[in-house]
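Support request, please re-run this one:
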Amino acid sequence: AYEIVMCWSSDVCSSDLDIEAQFVAHHFGYYYVELCPFETETDDCFTHMLPILSGTEEIRDGNKLCVGQRDNSIAFARVKLPDGVRCNRCTLRWTYRTSYWRDDPSN
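Re-run finished. Output below.
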């Protein structure tokens, strides 16, 4: 098993990961990122949202990046990978939650 660290050369490594998501039509809301450290992923292994260290949009609760109000925008986030997690094959999953409703929220 390997500790989760991204390396770009023999002396440049990081446990932070840059993620970008393009939104063709904005519906507000937010996205978050989860990690499954097992070779075969199931919904049960995605149990913790990863902390978002920085981003181009507002960060809520430390782990949700809000989606901007511009169509065809790209939202960037720097995510902190967990310390001490080791795996041969890990899976990152990002989930988008919209807060969109029609002009009349009662519909």
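The chain has a mean pLDDT of 78. The chain is about 0% helix and 45% strand.
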